[in-house]
Known about the structure:
Blueprint: H1 2-44, H2 47-68, H3 71-77, E1 81-82, H4 83-106, H5 108-115, H6 120-127, H7 129-146, H8 150-173, H9 179-200, H10 214-260, H11 262-281, H12 286-313, H13 315-322, H14 330-336, H15 338-347, H16 350-356, H17 360-381, H18 385-409, H19 416-444, H20 450-472, H21 476-485, E2 498-499
Parallel strand pairs: 1-2
Helix pairs in contact: 1-8, 1-11, 2-4, 2-6, 2-7, 2-10, 3-7, 3-10, 4-6, 4-7, 5-6, 7-9, 8-9, 10-14, 10-17, 11-12, 11-16, 12-15, 12-19, 13-14, 13-20, 14-18, 15-18, 17-18, 19-20
Amino acid sequence: MHSRLGGELHNLKGKAIWSGIVKLLSQTATSILRLCYLAVLARLLSPNDFGLVAMVLVITGIFDLFTTAGLSSATIQKAEVSNQQVSNLFWINVLVGTTLALLCAASASFMAEFYREPSLFWITVAMASGFVFNALGVQHSALLQRDMRYVTLSVLDTLSQGGSILLGIAMAFAGYGYWALVAAAVAGPAIHTTGCWLATGWLPDRPRAGAGIRSMLHFGGTITLNSLTVYIGYNAEKVLLGRFWGADTLGLYTRAVQLINLPVSMTNAAIGGVFFSALSRLQEDPVRLRAFFLKGYSLVMAVTMPATIFSALFADDIIAVVLGPNWMQAATIFRLMTPTILVFGIINPLSWLLLSIGLQRRSLHVGLVLAPLVFASYAIGLPYGPVGVAFCYSAAMTLWLLPHLVWCLHGTMISVMDLARTIAGPFLSGIVAAAGAYELQRRFGEDLTPVLRLALGGATMAGIYAAVLLFAMGNRTFYLDLLTSLKRPPSLDSVNVVREEP
């Protein structure tokens, strides 16, 4: 029995590593696609076009949180789940998604009046269909994640991203303006859901009473309330900027935030889902859970730290290359937001830990305190426009970092010092690498184009960072072990995570 358990845990480690690598490669590919998409559309559409769609997305994003109702996480986290339980959750998701689509369409008039933009009416109506597409795929995607079939999920993510991007670019070239953004936003979920149905081959049964989903609904409800609280806190400034400063200003702000957020969102999407699934399987084994979490956290820090520091150092060149010369006002916002994004990179992975060990209530309480804090920062910075909002937002998040870590980790198997030791290597390595890149830029950068400055600075930072992190900081053994684990890929087939009814 002990030997079999050890073998299962070894296979879990292998699946987690391989899944994380595959997801990271997939997220890198989709991030490159998004960058190209953003670069092309920034030259075909105006800040006003982006701002109009952003006005709708901020509000519909609230509805979108209820599409899953936290039930995908409930399916993944539960130690055992039956086919009937998943079927019941599927029909609940469909009911919720349909209701949200109707509510979204019904809010179209309010949106147009609130922002004083008549064109928002039909944009909102069109965006409503996305809720149904998302709801139809929630449980199918959750089953793939629970089974750790991240190769399949990565392919589906790339296909859905690529398909929506091609549609958006084609419509932008054809002169459809902001409708190109709307079409791309709706097409992505439709393609992804279709792929998940085909990949799982799972068909839901009709809903039945007595399947024992009450605890799963409670878990999902707590997660949804937490997500709603955090979403409002992290996105209220977009509503305020759109209402008081207009679509052009909001377009500049949202493009800058989207661009600077890419490193963190890419890494969390790649590693977060994998490690949440793995940690959930290890919730009864705190020793191995701790080791899994710290390794995953180390990988996140190794990627997000240098990427965020590089973004702050080369903000002007990044904006010039990706968005073009007409968007240079966004560079200041981009640079001021880097502390916020760095804090997100540090604190976001803690949600994997809290949810996997059943501390979703603590996560909710943290969100209920954080939301008013960041909202107050928006209110202070709003009179000074997007630059003031970005500065105050970053200041608030920086001050919040230590209390957040202490609160989240209290009483768990992870200490603040564990995280501090994990963060120290990538952070110090990133600072040393940035200093080297800055000196090179100061000496030779003035004679180079923005593209060449980015290439030279990026290569310099990458080389110095790798040397310092692997050798000076002593992380060479960790990454050699990671490479060794990749030499023998484990089976990524189903591991019978859904039990059948007796």
